[in-house]
Amino acid sequence: MAIVFKEVNYSYQSKTPNAFQLLKNVSFRLTDGSFTALIGQTGSGKTTLLKHINGLLKPSSGQVLVGDQAINARTSEKDLADLRKRVGFLFQFPETQLFAPTVLEDVAFGPENFGQTKSSAEQTAKETLNMLGFDMTLANQPPINLSGGQQRLAALAGVLATEPQILLLDEPTAGLDPSTTKRVMTLFKKLQQDEHLTILMATHDMDAAAEFADQILLMQQGKLVKQASPKDMFQEKGLVFQKILALPKVTAFASRFTAKTGYKNQKLPISEKELISFLQQALSEEPLGKETMPNA
């Protein structure tokens, strides 16, 4: 399902003296089956933007199109019921969406609510938890007994078990160790490619954004600053200098390398593979003296 924002504005408590504008004239289009990273500093409007896609929030003005469903200030809750079955949302704080007595019951709730039998929903829940590498010895434990990382996996399983067409992810790797982060991000990419899932991920993890996203949206103070591919986004030295944009680790290293050695390359690398090629080329073209290599 495609996602289109058309001049979307959103103000909190819009008709009160405390009104505060959180989204400012935001317009973009995400194609069906795309993987997009939504980045920006804390408070830039990322979560607010995500909540417009399944109608948890509605624009003060402008319009959001999700597939053929329009969302504007006048859209009713009844009109959004079918859309919400097709849009999965993993919230930033997973404990807010874990409510059943056990993990297994929580994950099975969505499939059963969408029409599966109790036994079928439980099987779907087990398969989804296994797919995420969840420790199944904890499946019959209350969610409150889990660690933060385990809660995040359980909440994610509950979202994926409903087989959404759009997946909204708010800081999905927060609290996960590096190996679990890699496994979960690889799974998201596989779902995008195999199931033609449209994914929009709000994240502070620039390494994940660079490696897995097809395109990136950069937000600042409620405005969309730039929409670009990861390769093009992370060449924006002006945005980095203004501290609007952070860099992936390999790109930051390459940037320090060029600053210290004077080596000039058309584009900085955004992956480890590109970094190896970048350094090989630099070492073959520019003999480096002692003390010129930057610290990792």
Automatic annotation (TrEMBL):
Membrane disposition: Peripheral membrane protein
All residue ranges annotated as the ABC transporter domain in the record: 3-246
Listed SMART domains: AAA
GO-annotated molecular function: ATP binding; ATP hydrolysis activity; ATPase-coupled transmembrane transporter activity
Keyword Heme: no
InterPro entries, A to Z: AAA+_ATPase, ABC_transporter-like_ATP-bd, ABC_transporter-like_CS, ABC_transpr_CbiO/EcfA_su, ECF_ABC_transporter_ATP-bd, P-loop_NTPase
Keywords recorded for this protein, A-Z: ATP-binding, Cell membrane, Membrane, Nucleotide-binding, Translocase, Transport
Any one Gene Ontology cellular component term annotated for this protein: ATP-binding cassette (ABC) transporter complex
Localization (cell): Cell membrane
Organism domain of life: Bacteria
Family: Belongs to the ABC transporter superfamily.
PANTHER family: ENERGY-COUPLING FACTOR TRANSPORTER ATP-BINDING PROTEIN ECFA2, HEAVY METAL TRANSPORTER
Protein name listed in UniProt: ECF transporter ATPase component
The organism of origin for this protein: Oenococcus kitaharae DSM 17330
